[in-house]
């Protein structure tokens, strides 16, 4: 008979008596690792205790009948009369005789910090996380549980993308026979912002509940590192064994004359009306996503970019294609334009001046010129934590900083600044530090998206990266008009691209700019990560009629790049001609 517990303990509820002892990676094969009262009860029963007595003893040994996911190490069984020592309650560790308040103190409750804290607690650590009070706009004294993505980034921005696209849908519907005899559709932008803010408030509270359910202490306030084992939160100090920095990034606005008149992405998310005419400075994904939002909602939009292309770091063909699609929708793009001054003419008129001598006038100027690691006031220098020349915290492959008990994950390390990557890094850290399972976050083949109009989905290498790493690359491309646009008259087209290692037939890059591109690419990202070949993609039956089927029906390469031929002076154009 087994000892069966009705309490929802972490792990298995029925611990088979025949299960062999667990080998501890720390203490070797001569120990037994018990993770919950059920396991302890089963072992006590196997050593002679009655089922009822075993369960009673097991739960009294644990501080609570609720999940207690830590490792208790007891001597391996030698005889049936062997007895287990009493189990201690979960509590913070000691080191060199020093008692800590927490095993882990996390500064920053964004995606990476919350994920790391939750799982560290589940692995048995006593955990606290500090975060600033909630606001939709970040500042030195405002933040909120959930972080940038949830409160003032991906989530609210995507809600505005959805909201603005209804204007495009209404327009497209005319080609399908729809009309609006009662007048043109109108949007109450303030209503959208109100609903958006209610959703953010819900998410903020949901994240707090998640931490509470994981038995993580949430401390509201600004965290500062005093030394490697001390964190100060608004005057209250905590002794901690490990510190995790997960403070994310901050908006960067170039200090030019009149910068106080511009808005940022935080401000843009809270505008209660659509700008009549807006200049957006920057060529990254934030700038382009807001350009699409405001253009669809009816604003006149101009984009000012210092360089000659949009979206640095993306595939060049994708960058050029997106620029063409934005311009086809009436968005004006000014390349090689560096703003040097913003002048306020009256209450609703601003003038933007560029280094080239050009001027622009409109109602709003938005700066989307990037983000910087959020390290201000953290006390990194006092703690001895190294940063790079871009002020990102330096970490090793396990997210450990130059101080061996201080770690960092997410945008503050400036590796790949995406929410799912921060989640992955937080999980890997928790396993490494508290599960005795050293885990490196894998930053290869990370899929990403840009929610422009049309949106971009991508995974793997760009063409330039592919040629640099593999040399010989087959390139497959296709540009087409989506079926919906053939009737609606929408000018936006779709572009897809596959990059293949010619030596192995392995697909090393996939790119799509078109409606539903991010949704489509999420599925293909699994295939790329698993090492899919072009032959395998070719053998896959497509779903018709869809845009996604183009990715499994392209048979002939647009061009074939051969490193040896290129080195011998044969240009890419000649190789492309040979391929066709």
From TrEMBL:
InterPro entries: FAD/NAD-bd_sf (IPR036188), FAD/NAD-binding_dom (IPR023753), FAD/NAD-linked_Rdtase_dimer_sf (IPR016156), GSHR (IPR006324), GSHR/TRXR-like (IPR046952), Pyr_nucl-diS_OxRdtase_dimer (IPR004099), Pyr_OxRdtase_I_AS (IPR012999), Trypnth_redctse (IPR001864). GO terms for biological process: cell redox homeostasis; cellular response to oxidative stress; glutathione metabolic process. It comes from Klebsormidium nitens. This is Glutathione reductase. Keywords: Disulfide bond, FAD, Flavoprotein, NADP, Oxidoreductase, Redox-active center. Its cofactor is FAD. Its main location: cytoplasm. It is an enzyme of class 1 (oxidoreductase). The lineage of its organism: Eukaryota, Viridiplantae, Streptophyta, Klebsormidiophyceae, Klebsormidiales.
